[in-house]
Write a structure and sequence with these properties.
Elements lengths: L3 H13 L6 H13 L3 H4 L10 H6 L4 H7 L5 H19 L3 H6 L2 H23 L26 H12 L3 H11 L6
Length: 185
């Protein structure tokens, strides 16, 4: 899963171009899936996903299952959906299969969570992510450390945030409903 500061940066960039959405509800929805105690349920995780890193992380979310349960999306649900989209694309676009196959799951998680600490402070500074953004779930806030080289290069993170925050979500939802599975926008 992408870290919450990346989710918030994407949400805030998306909201810049969609000012009619309820800001507080959208942000709360963006944080909700990771703040809830049943992560598998809130991420619509496929219970039969494989145990290798590629299938394990790339089947963490089911966009179609979410849309089947949520026929119309209010601001909270749209933020929640954006969280799922971000996670799906994050593991698809930010980590090659070669990299994922070269690591044990534990080593991958260790490197990933270290990278989250590295990007949190960077996200705060570049995307104006503050403790206030975690208002709906304050226990989810954790400060970062000064950025150091890690598996999430700043340039890649910035490009990912720009790309995901500019997805035409309405047409993407229609595309998912047609193919009835996760698909790239």
């Amino acid at each position: 899963m992408a870290c919450l500061s990346i989710h918030l940066a994407i949400a805030k960039k998306y909201l810049e171009n969609h000012k009619k959405l309820d800001y507080k509800k959208f942000i709360a929805g963006t944080l909700f899936p990771d703040a809830d105690s049943d992560n598998d349920k809130t991420h619509y995780t496929n219970k039969e996903r494989g145990c290798d890193n590629v299938s394990h992380v790339r089947s963490k979310v089911s966009l179609y299952k979410f849309l089947e349960e949520h026929k119309t999306l209010d601001a909270f649900e749209l933020g929640w959906f954006f969280h799922l989209v971000t996670n799906y694309l994050f593991f698809l676009e930010c980590f090659t299969e070669e990299y994922l196959r070269s690591k044990t799951y534990q080593d991958f998680c260790n490197e990933l969570y270290h990278a989250y600490f590295c990007v949190n402070l960077y996200m705060e500074e570049k995307y104006n992510i503050t403790k206030e953004d975690y208002k709906a779930y304050p226990e989810e806030y954790y400060p970062g450390i000064p950025y150091e080289e890690c598996i999430l290069p700043k340039e890649m993170v910035d490009a990912f945030i720009k790309r995901v925050s500019h997805i035409n979500i309405e047409s993407y939802i229609e595309k998912i409903k047609i193919v009835k599975k996760n698909i790239e926008p």
